Amino acid sequence: MIKAVVKGTGLFLFGSMPVGVRFYRYVTQNVFGTMESHIYKMYRKWPGLVSDMTDVCGISLEKARLWEHEAGWTPYISLLFYITTGSGGTVLNTRARGARILARHIEKSIEMAKKMADKLSGKIHIPEERLKLLDSISGCKNLQEIFDITGGEYLTDSSPHKLSLGNSSRDVLLSGGQLEHYRPEVLKLFFKEAYRILSPGGFMIVTINHSDHLHLFDGKLPFLYHYGIQDRIYKMTRSNPLLYHNRMLPEEIMGILKDCGFEKIKITRLALPEFKYVEYSDTDLGSYGIGRRYLTERYKNSTDSALKTAAAKYIYRKPSG
Hints:
8 strands, eight-stranded mixed β-sheet, about 325 residues, alpha/beta, Rossmann fold, globular, about 15% strand
C-alpha cells in the first residue's frame, strides 16, 4: 500500500495549495500529455457501447444525437460519434471538473478513429465518405475546424446542473468515470438536467467508478477501501478536487435515477479480479472490495452486490410518454 500512500499524499498536497490543482493538471495534461491513454481506453470500450446502444437499447445510430458529458481532454469521442452516426455530436466539459480538449491530441484521435472504423465494419455500416473525410483532416491542428467539418460541437459549461443544451435536444447521453466526482446533491441536479435534455424515449448510458481511485495506482489497496474511512477523516484528507469521490453506493444512484423519472433498462457491475461486467444482482463472480468488518457505520448494511462492485454501468431510459 506504499504506492497509494505516496500518491495520495502528493495529491493531498497539490490539492491543498491555492493553485495546486491547476498546476497539477497543467503539468500532467499539457506537459506530459497523460490523457492520451484515454484514447486507447475508449478504443477498447467503444464497440461495447455501440452494442449497448443498438442491441440493448434498440437505437438506430444513423443521425442519432449523441452527447458525451465530461468528455475529457481529447477530441476522440467526437470522431467516434462522427463515424458511427454521421455527426460529431456534442462533447461537453464543465468547469466543475476542469478538463478541456487539447489540440495536441488531434493526430492520435484521427489515427485511432480510422482504426475504429475498421473494427466496427462488421457491426455497423460506415459510409466510405466518412473514411475519406478522416483522411482529409489528417494533419489538421485546429480543434474548431475538426468540430466544424464533422458537424460536432464542443461546449464548456460552468455548472453540471445548469447546462446550455435545449429541452429534448439529445437522444443519448454517455459518460464514463466522471460522475463519481460530483457531490451527491450536484449529481442529483445533473440527472434532473439530463432528464430535461434527453428526448422522450432517449437513453443514458453512464459508467460510474465506485472504486477508491488510489486503487488504480496501487493494486494492493482494497478497491473499496474508502468505504472504511470515517466521514470526518475523509473530509479532512480527501475533500479537494484531486482526491474527492462521492462514495455513493449503486443503490443510491439507482434511487436518484428513479426519483428523476428514469426507467431502468439494465445495470451491470465490474467484477474484480476477473475484470468482467456481469448482471448487478449476480454475486457469484468477483471478490469483495473490502471486508465487512472494516466498513464504517454508513456502509454496514450494504448489499453483497454493492460490496463487489468496482464500477457499474447504468442504462436508463426517459419514458416516451
